[in-house]
Amino acid sequence: MVSQRLADAYEKFLRHSHWEDAYSCIRLLYEQDKVEGYKYIKSYREAIQRVVGYEKYHRMSYLLSAREHFDDFMVYIEWGRPLPEQYWLPRRKKLKVVADALQSLEDGELDELFLSMPPRVGKTTLILFFMLWVILRNPESSNLYTSYTDSVVGVFYKGLLEILNDPYTYAWQDVFPERKLVSTNAKDLLLNIDREKRYASFTGRSLYGTLNGACDCNGYEVADDLISGIEEAMNKDRLMSAWSKVENNFLPRAKEGAKHLWIGTRWSLIDPQGMRIELLQNEEKFKSVRWKQINVPALNDQEESNFDYAYGVGFSSEAYQQRRASFEKNNDMASWLAQYQGQPIERDGAVFRPEDLRFYNGVLPDCDPDRIFMAVDPAWGGGDFVAAPVCYQYGEDIFIPDVVYDDRDKTVTQPLLVSAIIGNNVASVGVEATKMTAEYADGVDSLLRDKGYRVNVMKTTKHYTGNGKAQRIFDKAPDIRERMVFLEAGKRTKTYEKFMQNVYAFSMTGKNKHDDAPDSLAMAINMAFFCDNKIQIMRRIF
């Protein structure tokens, strides 16, 4: 607990711009209580950062807390470098969420952390700095880093050595003046801080190298890109082989209490990350493990880059949109979704591939449609999507010029449906209604009546879940491929694009996190061609 007298003195010095005295106060406050004292450090930084002539004290405020706070460590060690040459500050705004999660891991709030980001955005470099900080904080711990090949591990090892051997470019020695690099071994990819140890401060090994006996890890096990690329990701036997190496060689190297950090491209639902997540999510024995998964996609929901860093060191929205267009041109949206959006897809079980679907340029046939209808797969939000294609039927063909696809609550999705219904002059709406969602259909109908729009809102009581839903989609897949005509790339809205990505992601061999879009298409096919109309013979009444 901090001294109230000292806290009051700090506030007084701050009001009168006595920056040196205020700094002395925050230093003493931090020594008394790291948690409460850190609040005063942040207050001091905010006040002094724009004051001319006191950069020294601004910098020293980061030095005060750099041993305990990873973000502060990153800011401090590059302070003297030109901003365009720095790693952290140009990227900090975008990657702070990752740094905060790493801090939670180090603080003992998490046991495992999974990170997924696109290629070449600096994720491995960030982990390199993190491991440097961890090793300097805890030189007696032993830490293990692995990747799919020796060359990747070797680059990581050399990166650590480069920083450790250059305390002038990276001022880590100011933060940890007592630490020394005492030994290295380029052949075995080992390094030791402060003293020689049986199990080194850092050990690097490839997943297919000699992991047995290499390290008795009581610090961090770091798995970085355990799958080499698309060829391995498309080979189920290779994926199972990689997971077997993780289970039998990598994970057993960790002592109880060691932390796990998983990084890389999520190629497949059954890649090593996916298999580990499956255990953590579904196995009762793993319920006590505190874990977090962070996926930062290339493009956000507004089609904006999440990695448009300062000084041009990242990737613009246009660059990623062009990259996506290239994948789509080559009918390989699965690779785009996996590499750049963090959405792994099972290619061998994909039911809907771009090359098998029909597309049009946005111009509907030059005649009135036989029917305009909408199929609605409703949801209340909370991660589930409302999915609803607007269907213009011309004989056997169903053109889809518009869709609703949104995971927000009913106050957003119901008006979106009403707008699409009225805007497209929809005459018939089918809503899959259960005890849980019947009220949702009534809400849409009520909003339409309030606007004076009459439409036949039908509640479909036949409801499918789990395997039954997947089977319905699979059964209707031939009709979806042959009879439905979707907008081509470049003509779609952002919502339409997300809808199509969800269609492409549906698989019969993997687990589908969301299958709302393909389910709504299966429902639309039912409405168009498989209505449960009954014929009954009755007495003529005239």
The fold-level CATH name of the largest domain is: Rossmann fold
Write the CATH architecture name of the largest domain: 3-Layer(aba) Sandwich
Tally of separate domains: 3
**Helicity, in percent?**
40-55%
Principal-axes shape call: globular
With helices defined by DSSP (H or I, 4 residues minimum), what is the helix count?
19
User: How would you classify the quaternary structure?
Assistant: single chain
CATH superfamily of the largest domain: P-loop containing nucleotide triphosphate hydrolases
Q: How many DSSP E strands?
A: 15
Q: Strand sequence of the main sheet, in spatial order?
A: 3-4-5-2-6-7-1-8
Terminal CA distance reads: 94 Å
Which CATH class of the largest domain applies here? Alpha Beta
The biggest beta sheet is recorded as: 8 strands, mixed
Rounded average pLDDT: 89
Detailed description of the structure:
The strands form 2 sheets. The protein has an 8-stranded mixed beta sheet with strand order 3-4-5-2-6-7-1-8, with helices on one face. Strands 9-15-12-11-10-13-14 form a 7-stranded mixed beta sheet. Helix 2 (19-32) packs parallel to helix 4 (55-65), helix 7 packs across helix 8 and helix 15 crosses helix 16. Mean pLDDT is 89; it is low at 532-542. It has 542 residues and is of the alpha/beta class. The chain contains 19 helices and 15 strands.
List descriptors.
542 residues; alpha/beta; Rossmann fold; Nucleotidyltransferase, domain 5; 7-stranded mixed sheet; 19 helices; 44% helix; disordered C terminus
